[in-house]
Amino acid sequence: MKTLAALVTELENTMPFMEQKNEAVSQVTVGWHIEHSLLALVKMITATEHSNPTEYKKTFNWKRSLVLAMGKIPRGKAKVPSSVKPGDEISEATIKPLLEKAKQKAELFETLSNDRYFTHPVFGDLKLNKARKIIAIHTQHHISIINDILKS
């Protein structure tokens, strides 16, 4: 599995194609996928960073188990939470600062203790190792969509 920093770099490398769109693949632009991925990564890492390990709740979640086992998220099955939904104006000016923040957060993530976690709205509480996998799977999901947009 690629590091979070490597995934952020992959997103950064698609910046020149921000305006591209292929409605057969996705209803939104490459820029939207970049910004959403960065917003989600920053939010998940920040939540992990500020978590209180004593509040962690271990539960079984079949959706989490399925995504972790498959290593991918099915396309078109999820609604984007408003907290990680890009605004109407997507540009280099909105994405560049997010890229820098994502790079910092990806680096910081590697220094967190294993008892840290974050609560995902669908998958529940995810301790550090599962959190890393879910963040990577989510980011790779959007990179794959971007690559499919760019193929056409």
Summarize the structure.
This protein is mainly alpha-helical and 152 residues long. 53% of the residues lie in helices and 5% in strands. It has one domain: Four Helix Bundle (Hemerythrin (Met), subunit A) (Up-down Bundle), CATH 1.20.120.
Gyration radius, in Å: 15 Å
Q: What is the CATH level 1 assignment?
A: Mainly Alpha
Approximate strand percentage: 5-15%
Number of strands: 2
Q: Figure out the total of helices.
A: 5
Percent helix among the residues?
40-55%
In round numbers, the mean pLDDT is 95
CATH topology: Four Helix Bundle (Hemerythrin (Met), subunit A)
Please tell me about this protein's structure.
By secondary structure, the chain is mainly alpha-helical. The chain has one domain (4-151): Four Helix Bundle (Hemerythrin (Met), subunit A) (Up-down Bundle), CATH 1.20.120. The protein is built from five helices and two strands; from the N terminus they run ααααββα. It has helices at residues 4-13, 30-49, 62-70, 92-109, 128-151; strands at 117-120, 124-127. It has a two-stranded antiparallel ribbon with strand order 1-2. Strand 1 (117-120) and strand 2 (124-127) form a beta hairpin. Helix 1 (4-13) runs antiparallel to helix 4 (92-109). The radius of gyration is 15 Å and the shape is globular. The mean pLDDT is 95.
Set down the secondary structure blueprint:
Blueprint: H1 4-13, H2 30-49, H3 62-70, H4 92-109, E1 117-120, E2 124-127, H5 128-151
Antiparallel strand pairs: 1-2
Helix pairs in contact: 1-4, 1-5, 2-4, 2-5
